[in-house]
């Protein structure tokens, strides 16, 4: 799905969309945001429902490493996007990057870099990956950063296109923000229904961890 969407953007002529790095960049971003959201949900559930024996600190440590690795790929995508805008010599692409750094939406772009590039660098340290509080804080930064990334790609790219007479700044109305909050409420409702009526952890995977489970490999004939 993300590959299809990334190609839809890449074939557009709007500066900020027309870049061949989008397909791998979107896939890495999806993994990055996905692991951050999984940790955001798993850490509180682990504490509230006493799942420490099933979701161990080793699991969280490995997820922190993957979060760091995919975050570096996303940071590389940001770097190459800026580099190619400069190296191409295309005045429209160059203006797009200058507008991101110094334009009216510059605070969002700098916040995006702080959330998606700077904050995850703390995951280099074992102590950070071994702290559920630190992991939760970093994941919340990533969640905000990935939301800002979508905002930058869509809104900022369309706010200043090829025709200066059509330039305008977008400000969300109360209906826009109400719909946004509503989607969060819908997600939480469905999530709580899921953990209420369905197993939070796959029984098939967990049954082999029980002491009474005797799993033996069949000897070769």
Sum up the structure in keywords:
221 residues; mainly alpha; 9 helices; single chain
- The helix/strand series, from N terminus to C terminus, equals HHHHHHHHH
- Biggest beta sheet summary: none
* Tally of individual helices: 9
Structural class: mainly alpha
Proportion of beta-strand residues:
under 5%
What distance separates the N and C termini?
Answer: 45 Å
- Kindly state the mean pLDDT as a whole number? 86
Whole-number radius of gyration?
A: 21 Å
Low-confidence stretches: 217-221
Q: In brief, what are we looking at here?
A:
69% of the residues lie in helices and 0% in strands.
Structure report:
It is a single chain. It is built from 9 helices and no strands. It has 221 residues and is an all-alpha fold. Helix 2 packs antiparallel against helix 7 (132-159), helix 3 packs across helix 4 and helix 5 (106-118) runs antiparallel to helix 7.
What's the topology here?
Elements: H1 2-10, H2 22-48, H3 57-88, H4 91-102, H5 106-118, H6 126-129, H7 132-159, H8 174-197, H9 203-206
Helix pairs in contact: 1-2, 2-3, 2-7, 3-4, 4-5, 5-7
């Amino acid at each position: 799905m993300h590959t299809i969407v990334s190609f839809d953007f890449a074939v557009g002529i709007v500066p900020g969309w027309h870049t061949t790095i989008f397909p791998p960049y979107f896939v890495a971003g999806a993994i990055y945001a996905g692991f951050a959201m999984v940790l955001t949900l798993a850490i509180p559930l682990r504490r509230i429902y006493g799942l420490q024996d099933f979701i161990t600190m080793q699991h969280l440590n490995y997820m922190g490493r993957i979060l760091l690795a995919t975050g570096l790929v996303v940071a590389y995508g940001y770097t190459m996007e800026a580099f190619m805008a400069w190296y191409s010599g295309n005045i429209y692409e160059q203006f797009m990057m200058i507008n991101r750094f110094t334009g009216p939406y510059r605070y969002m772009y700098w916040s995006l870099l702080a959330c998606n590039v700077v904050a995850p660098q703390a995951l280099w340290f074992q102590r950070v990956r071994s702290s559920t509080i630190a992991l939760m804080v970093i994941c919340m930064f990533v969640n905000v950063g990935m939301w800002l990334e979508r905002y930058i790609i869509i809104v900022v790219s369309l706010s200043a296109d090829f025709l200066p007479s059509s330039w305008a700044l977008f400000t969300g109305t109360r209906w826009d923000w109400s719909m946004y909050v509503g989607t969060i409420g819908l997600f939480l409702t469905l999530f709580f229904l899921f953990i209420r009526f369905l197993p939070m952890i796959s029984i098939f995977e967990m049954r082999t961890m029980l002491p009474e489970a005797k799993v033996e490999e069949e000897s070769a004939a």
